[in-house]
Amino acid sequence: MHSVSLFYIIVTFFVALVPNVWAAPHHAFSDLSIRATDREIDAYLNTHNVIRAVHNATSLDWSNSLARRARFWASLCRLEHSGGVLSSEPYGENIAAASGDFPIDSAVATFISDEDQYDPAKPSYLRFTQVVWKSTTELGCASNQCMGLFKDQPLTPVTIYVCLYNPPGNVIGKAPENVQN
């Protein structure tokens, strides 16, 4: 009897030490039929377009097709770029995530937070440059609530935003005509 109890204690101890291989970020909203509300669409467009106007870029139009792809990527709760797997056509992409209160305008502010790193004399391709890229005409975005997205906060709900852009920006050699200060 004693050896059986000791066996269970040892097994329990080792099971507790082994990481849960099935543990992946949990997505709270996996229904891909849920689309952005008109209010959310306006927030995505207005926030982007105010920034674009400062940089002499025309206003973006909403793309339901891009939004569906963004919604799919957001539903996976992966804080990484899709690597082009969402479409056979190229697209631009920005992703941001945070815990706590993280509305759309804060996500877009995150996208442009690297603006001060842009040097027209030596163009680099950043999240900011995608937002203000002049030849981009369409935008589609989505968000999702995820658990476990931040490894150091596995029980904290995190909002992830994915925005896709068409045509894509950040084309090497095209920054001078597409990014204006």
TrEMBL record:
- Record's signal peptide: 1-23
Matching SUPFAM superfamilies, A to Z?
A: PR-1-like (SSF55797)
Domain of life of the organism encoding this protein:
Eukaryota
Alphabetical list of Pfam families matching this protein? CAP
Q: Spell out the Gene3D superfamilies in the cross-references.
A: CAP
Q: Which UniProt keywords apply?
A: Signal
Enumerate the spans annotated as SCP domain.
39-173
Database matches in PANTHER family: CYSTEINE-RICH SECRETORY PROTEIN-RELATED (PTHR10334)
Name this polypeptide is given: SCP domain-containing protein
Organism name: Panaeolus cyanescens
